Structure formats: C-alpha cells, structure tokens
Amino acid sequence: MLSMQEKFYWLFGGIGVLLAIASIVGGLLRRRLPDSATVANLVARVRAWWVMVAVLAACFLLGRTATIVLFAIASLFALREFVTLTPTRQGDHLPLVVCFYVLLPVQYLLIGDDWYNLFAIFLPVYGFLLLPVLTTLGSDTGQFLERVTKLQWGLMITVYCVSYVPALLLLKIPHYGDNLLLVIYLLLVVQISDVLQYVFGKLLGKHKIAPIVSPSKTVEGFVGGGASATAIGASLWWITPFTPVQAAGLAAVIVLAGFLGGLALSAVKRSLGAKDWGSLIEGHGGMLDRLDSVSFAAPVFFHLTRYFFEP
Amino acid sequence: MLSYLFAMVVRVLVGARPQWIGCKPTPGLRIYYANHSSHLDTLALWCALPRSLRATTRPVAASDYWNRGVRAYIATHGFNALFIERDRGKREGDPLEPLLQALASGQSLVIFPEGTRRAQALPSAFKSGIFHLAAKFPDAELIPVYLDNLYRSMPKGTLLPVPLTCSVRFGAPLARVAGESKDAFLERARQGVVDLA
Question: What DSSP assignment string belongs to A21-63?
C-alpha cells in the first residue's frame, strides 16, 4: 500500500508528465503553424493548466484549510463573473453585498466547522428565503422576480454547488482517510473529460449535439472523450475508497453530470449575451468556464459517495 | 507598499482590467478623463495604469470627500491624489491652480469632467475645467477613458462595493481643433468617452 503522500506525488508527477507532453506538442505545432489561432489558444490553455495545477498542488500540500480557502476564492470569482453578466439594479445592492460578504464565507466556514447538516441546507433554505426579503428593502418592484431568481441561481451554482468540492473533506468513509485525494479524483476526472472531449471533438467531431447552445460539443467528442475519461477514472481507483468497477461507474456519472452542466451553463451564458464568462484564465475564458462542469458533477458525486460509502 | 496592497484589493473587488484601445501606456504629458459613476472610479483607473506610469500620474480628487480622515490617508499614500475644491464658498483664487502646477511640472492627471457621480452607464454633460486645462497645455494628450460597471458595484450612498469585473478602456487621444468653441469642445470630449462605452 502506498501512503497518501506517495499517492499524491505519483498523481501530480503523472499530471506533470502529461502537461510536459502537451507543452512540447504545443511548441511543435506552433513552429509548424505559427499563424493558427487554434494553436495559439491551445498553447495558452496548456500554460494556464500549469498554473492551475501548481496552485492546486500547493493548496493540497498545505492541507484542509488551504483547500477550503482556495475554493472559497474560486466561488468568489465565479459569483463575480455571474453578477457582472447579470443586469442588476441599484435596489439589488444589499442582497448582493450579503451574498458576497456573508452567505459565501459562511457556506465555506460550515465546511471548515465540519457541520454537514447546516452546510447542506444553508443556501437552499435560508439563503433562498433571505434574498427576496433583502431585495424588497430596495423598494423597487420592477422585474422583482427575475432579479431575485437570477441572484438565487447564481448563488446556488457558483457557491453552493462549487462548495461541494471541498465538502468531500467532510465524508467519513470507513478505512479511508485521504479525502483530499477524493477532491483531486473528482477534479481530475471532470477536467480530463472536458479536455478529451475538446480534443476528440477537434480531431473527429462531425455531428453537433447542440449547435445553438454549444457549437463546440459533438457526439464524437462526447463519446470519445467521455469514454476515455471514464477509463482514466477507473484506472485511478487506487486513490479512492472504490473498487475499479465502482470507480468506473462514478467516473461515468461525473463525466455525464459535467457534460450536462457545461451544456446548461452554456445556455445560461448565451441567454446573458456572452461567449465567455470572463477573461480571468488566459485561453480558457473565465473562472466559470472552468467550473461549469465541476459545479454539476460535484454535488452528484458527493451525494452518491455519501449514500453508498458512508455507513 | 500601501499603494501596491491597495491595487491588489481593487483588482480582487472590481478587476479593473485595462484595455488600451486607442493608445499605448507610454509616458508623456497626458490628461486622462473618464466618466464618473462611483467612488471606486479613481481607484480603478489608477490601478489599471502600469506601475511605471502611476509614479507620474495624479488623480484629481474632490477635497470635500477624499481629504478627510482615513480617506485622506488612502488618497495621499494610496493613489497620490491631487485635491480640488468643489465648494465655491471655500475657494480661494483659481480652483484649477494646483492642476496647472502639476501639469507644468510634467505630471499627468486623471480627471472626471462631470464633476460629480451619476449612477448611469453614459456620462452627462462635462464641466468646463477640462477645456481650460487643454487650452493652457496644447501639447498634453487628452485620453478619453471609459469605466464600465462601476456604478453597479458601488452606487451613490452605499458603503461596500459589490465585486464585479470592470474594464477600463483607454481611447485614442482627442484631436485638437484650432479655434473650437468651449461647448463644441466639451461635447466632442464627452463623445470620446461615449464612443468607448
């Protein structure tokens, strides 16, 4: 049996090798096709991946608190992007302030405090009820329901759903104490699925799944990328409490939820009139462009694991 | 040090991402003028400038708001502000005098020609200060700047800013037209900001 430390180094060593290969391929492609926008974007994406992996690795090495703080910051940036694209009015100022400075920090503090029961209902119950009350204080009934709904929606996706990633640290699975590895497992499967769907789509993609909502998603990309990501997820069973078959099943669920999340949030993004959520991460767009599939996969993965693996 | 820390806080809160659309961030005598919708405007524009330019650029801040208590400390040490007196009763001599001195000593300025904040996307009519500054310094480049979203982040009468991604767009220098009337100049200058919106 490998210790958690050893597993961690093997994992990140492996990711480092993959990224090194991607960097070399990117460099060679750029030499051959110096004017291609796709290649330039690919190189920028790989470079951003190095940064994201380094930040993640640093936080995992620092431990539990750093990981929770990292995702709180990610939520902050994601919510910021969501609010930027959502038309808000002066009367929304108070509920917005409360979302950013109260609800978001409390949600993550509840994880730090190991208080699962409140974590799970804090935003869907108390946040949900509080926001319309605060919005009435702005004395502006114009498009009231639309404004409140958008805020509730943004908060649920960018804070509640994203907070399920570090919430994996709350799970108490018998004979398994390396919950940080479970966080890495989830992120790895989601992101590899996204990357491979993109690669398969670019190489083989012919049949668009949803040409209007998300023109880059193809049947070939989804099947090829999803199947490979599921296989990779299964092969990583040794960092999880699952058997290889269970790991394959959960990876398939993560892939599917992530795909659907990407699709749904792409529709939301387009209804707000934007192509990217922001420009925070070079080549990728905004924080939400990277977290869209995570936000759907994390709660599903969390609750399945909790239901089947917690006594 | 303080101004560096400040720039970081502002970046997290409102992004303040610079977009140099019509000019480059080069040194040289400049008057940046922007729409004014929030107390964050001065900070955001200041943070969008590269560090090398911040040393020689002075945002002009209203004395009645910024020259008090903690704000005065932030204004002086955080973004090297130059105070202007808005209150006619307290004025002695030409209120533009400190601005003219700064320009004469080679410092660039950041001004908000509307004179006060308006919670709206487009700027309203400009006051005449910018016309007089431009007339006295014909070689200074007049750079229109558009700040988006900030009026949503911190509208008038609120204390805490809502984090939003704001971009700071720098346009092409305003062309100088010989013998142009004051009103025509002010309207053309305003249009320079509107065009960036």
Answer: HHHHHHHHHHHH-TT-HHHHHHHHHHHHHHHHHHHHHHHHHH-
Q: What's the CA gap between A135 and B15, in Å, rounded?
A: 25
Q: Does B9 touch chain A if contact means CB atoms closer than 8 Å?
A: no
Q: What is the ipTM of this complex?
A: 0.81
Our CA angle for B121, B57, B129, nearest 5°, is: 60
Sign of the alpha-carbon dihedral angle for A128, A291, A72, B151:
negative
Q: Quick: pLDDT tens for A197-251.
A: 999 998 898 899 988 888 888 999 999 999 999 999 999 999 999 999 999 999 9
Chain A contact residues (CB < 8 Å to B)? 76, 79-81, 83-84, 88, 90, 93, 96-97, 100-101, 278-279
CA atoms within 13 A on the CB side of A53: 21
Token code pair at residue A166 = 């570090």
Report which secondary-structure segment, H or E, holds B108: strand B108-111
Query: Which sign does the torsion angle of CA A88, A159, B40, B53 carry?
Result: negative
Could you tell me which of B13, B19, B2 has the C-alpha nearest to residue B73?
B2
- Residues 6 or more apart whose CB falls under 8 angstroms from that of A263 comprise A209, A210, A213, A214, A217
Separation between Cα atoms, residue A101 and residue B123, nearest integer Å: 30
Backbone φ and ψ of B18, nearest 5°: -80, 140
pTM, full prediction? 0.89
Nearest to A279 among B17, B149, B163 (CB): B17
CB-CB under 8 Å, A84 with B149: yes
The letter for the amino acid at A192 is: I
- Tell which phi-psi region holds residue A55, choosing left (phi > 0), alpha (psi between -120 and 50) or beta: alpha
